[in-house]
Amino acid sequence: MSNSLKQLLEQIKNGELSIESGLDHLKTLPFEDLGYAKIDHHRKLRNGFPEVIYCEGKTIEQVQGIARSMIDAECNILGTRASREIYEGILQVTPHVTYYEAARCIVINPEKRMTCQEHYIAVVTAGTSDIPVAEEAAVTAETFGNRVERIYDVGVAGIHRLFAKLDLIRGAWVVIVVAGMEGALASVVGGLVDRPVLAVPTSVGYGASFNGLAALLTMLNSCASGVSVVNIDNGFGAAYSASLMNRE
Length: 248
Hints:
Layout: H1 2-13, H2 19-26, E1 32-33, E2 38-39, H3 43-47, E3 53-54, H4 60-70, E4 77-80, H5 84-91, E5 97-100, E6 105-108, E7 116-125, H6 131-143, E8 146-151, H7 160-163, H8 166-170, E9 174-179, H9 185-190, E10 197-201, H10 213-220, E11 227-229, H11 235-245
Helix pairs in contact: 1-2, 4-5, 6-11
């Protein structure tokens, strides 16, 4: 990788390649091969956000190795589905890490977070049991530099609770709605706001909820036109998309 990069820089220096063309090459050039993982160091250049470490299914040693590879990046590093054991393992690599237990997320270099204050993302849950998925969304969005407003436990079983927070929800640039059971809250919110609504079905519910499938189908069949749906329990995916929409 270093030889290819040196050759590219020489071409730019000698006028054989324009800066614009060089930047295009850099967007696809570099990754670091650790054997068990190939670290995409220039994902932020291509996609706007750096690579995220999905910790579940990886050993502590693997997550440590990936973190070491990414540690010098001029941005904060997000790890999702992280256990406390993973967090303690990362502490052996760097002290600059925060663990968000409810969200099961770790953030390395959190002091480098640059939060946009003008627009905000609203994260809304139907019930208290949906908060872990909502917190994954909220922490992800904050790590990517967004201001987040949390509005929890305002589901359709007591819809007056939602109406009490409607001004705050309507003021958001993007709304993430997290709901289990029958998943009706996404349609209700979608019919009340003029912003994109990203619906996250959760696996919360009794037997016939089929671990979130019932909520997923309800959200996919929403009659509210502005509702888009991510996978079951995928707070990260909703926040990633919301972050793209919330850019200035």
